[in-house]
Amino acid sequence: MAEKIAFLGLGNLGAPIAQRLINSGFEVTVWNRTISKAEPLAQLGAKVAENAIDAIEPGGIVFSVLADDNAVETTFSDALLQKLGSNGLHISMSTISPDCSRKLTETHNKYGASYVAAPIFARPDAVLSGMGNIVVSGEAGARERAKPLVQNFVKGVFDFGDDPGAANVIKLCGNFMIAASLEMMAEAFTLAEKSGIPRQSIYEMLTSTLFAAPIFQNYGKMVAQHTYEPVLFGLPLGLKDINLTLQASAKVNAPMPLADLVKNRFVSALAKDRAGMDWVALAKGASDDAGL
């Protein structure tokens, strides 16, 4: 008999993850604030719940991919956790603050449920092809229960131990490094362009030699070609993540001056009405500064 899963949050990442779980043979009940986003999954066989609590099975498994700390804390109310109850498992894939995960662990434990932080590194196309990577942290038994489930839609699973906030720290570090790489490539490609060298030429040379890695090859192509749509991860979400990174760094007295620079790029982009662009559009800041 197929294992039942509740899936809450069907954004650009949530929808393809839920699709992979359906395709893997799980019986999935989905919920999203905008109900129309559930329709494609319903056509694949998912049940659609009218509210988050209705999606939950007592003692069952629930995945969530929600926007921010407030969305997760609001959705996982006392009423929902009471229904999830003893032996229930929440696998939280949202990019949230480490402290939020620690707080959620306490509230879950109050009702006998377990919480695992499991943020994912992948864009939607990588999820559908099973090429993403995931980091997990939380109570040992819960982590072991979660790992075979997430292996249905990722390539690699990396365990960061008992502290439920640890996986969120890793996710914030990774997103910061991507954003910093976007800035680095933007500045380098702009220098080349101002020197009469096509952006595509420097991109092709560097990403086939010194920087032959997926982040540089995939995001670098977008920076080189000024490709900021379709929006798979929006600029406002990028700013949210860099703010969380700076909050986490301040808490442990770890200065991150480059993160401050990247934050200002996001703020500047939003001030220029670029909220409807992918977060790669922070790279336009270097072009703006160079008069291009």
From TrEMBL:
Domain of life (superkingdom): Bacteria
Keywords, comma-separated and alphabetical: NAD, Oxidoreductase
Pfam families cross-referenced by the UniProt entry: NAD_binding_11, NAD_binding_2
Record domain 6-phosphogluconate dehydrogenase NADP-binding: where: 4-157
Transmembrane feature ranges: none
Protein name: 3-hydroxyisobutyrate dehydrogenase
All residue ranges annotated as the 3-hydroxyisobutyrate dehydrogenase-like NAD-binding domain in the record: 165-283
Molecular function GO labels: 3-hydroxyisobutyrate dehydrogenase activity
InterPro entries (UniProt xref): 6-PGluconate_DH-like_C_sf (IPR008927), 6PGD_dom2 (IPR013328), 6PGDH_NADP-bd (IPR006115), HIBADH-like_NADP-bd (IPR029154), HIBADH-related (IPR015815), HIBADH-related_NP60_sf (IPR051265), NAD(P)-bd_dom_sf (IPR036291)
Enzyme Commission numbers on file: 1.1.1.31
Oxidoreductase as UniProt keyword: yes
Leading EC class: oxidoreductase
